[in-house]
Amino acid sequence: MSSTNPPELPSDEELAAMSREDLVRLGGKLDEVDIVEYPDPWPVKGTRAEKRAERLVALWFLIAAASGLAFAGVFLFWPSAYTAPDTDGYFMYSLYTPLLGATLGLSVLSVGVGALLYTKKFIPHEVSVQQRHDGGSAELDKATILAHLADAGVRSTIARRSLIKRTAGLGAGAMGLGIGVFALGGLVRDPWAQSDTENSLWHTGWKPKHEGEKVFLRRDTGDPEEVALVGPADLDAGGMETVFPFRETERKDHEALSKALKRSDNPVMIIRLRPEDARRVVKHQGQEDFNFGDYYAYTKICSHLGCPTSLYEQRTNRILCPCHQSQFNALEYAKPIFGPATRKLAQLPIAVDEETGYFYARSDFIEPVGPAFWERKS
Ligand code: FES
């Protein structure tokens, strides 16, 4: 039932002498709130049911802690380097992303379930009726609402539930640690430890494995072992082909051949410009000899967020990225001319092998492919 008669206001002395409980009820009355029900969820302290409820909440926080730590462990120690299907270690590698999602998801879920259960089991389920009113809050109102909040804290009994406090701190802490590792993991794992190898962000699978090795351009026929090299006669003027690196030393090596086709920074598009367009080409400083006649090879990895820039429009000589519609001008060293990308597509230096008549890469890209990263200067 709601009361409509405002209560008598206490003097300053009376206010100072009031207990928390009195202030709570007075505050309710001043706001025209009637507390209809305010039951203590555990009127008899220390019962087995209460202890069971406490352990249940603690269990969820412990699950949060375990999964948060598991997330950090997976992020740091699980094998995450790309492994091609049908090769050793692929199964473990394929579990990496699902495990990250499952452990972090379970950690967040468990903290949420623990908090919900605590609210359900230990916070009094108050039923109150309040009349609406206008205007700001007086000092009296502020004092009473503070008392109300403090009362809720005391009645929630959190102060004396050290098991829940400890496990909640552990669960939330481990989850926070997992998220922190996620954010700073790149620094913990030192991505630059192998900056000179083909597996760092600075290099791709086009990097020759030894001095003088020729890395040829091959197309993907669907069968890794069917090696189809690409030469100038394979492209018509205005044509484009996607190519991948191939080394003679890997001709019979199924694992290496599949890896070269699947590695994410390997795909390159080789474009043969029409002769009338080729005359208008503007080359990038220091990369004037990267093309072979009218043939230009650019990475297919978009410099915005790394999608494949798979579309080449012959009429306009634009290379398009379907993800966020960036466009690059193939006549001007693939510099971005529309959309969110701000860097040109990296150009692969190519030539034709006199012996075989096929294209090969004269070196790896001289700049990183794909999106920016902190240490990238170009
Ligand atoms: S990834 Fe290519 S435009 Fe965004």
UniProtKB/TrEMBL annotation:
Location in the cell: Cell membrane
SUPFAM superfamilies registered for this protein in UniProt: ISP domain
CDD domains: Rieske (cd03467)
Record-annotated Rieske domain positions: 265-359
Keyword Nucleotidyltransferase: no
Transmembrane intervals: 57-78, 90-118, 168-188
Keywords for this protein: 2Fe-2S, Cell membrane, Disulfide bond, Electron transport, Iron, Iron-sulfur, Membrane, Metal-binding, Oxidoreductase, Respiratory chain, Transmembrane, Transmembrane helix, Transport
Domain of life: Bacteria
GO annotation, cellular component aspect: plasma membrane
Membrane topology: Multi-pass membrane protein
Pfam families named among the record's database cross-references: QcrA_N, Rieske
Signal peptide extent: none
GO molecular function ontology, one term from the record: monooxygenase activity
Similarity comment: Belongs to the Rieske iron-sulfur protein family.
Function of the protein: Iron-sulfur subunit of the cytochrome bc1 complex, an essential component of the respiratory electron transport chain required for ATP synthesis. The bc1 complex catalyzes the oxidation of menaquinol and the reduction of cytochrome c in the respiratory chain. The bc1 complex operates through a Q-cycle mechanism that couples electron transfer to generation of the proton gradient that drives ATP synthesis.
Name of the protein in question: Cytochrome bc1 complex Rieske iron-sulfur subunit
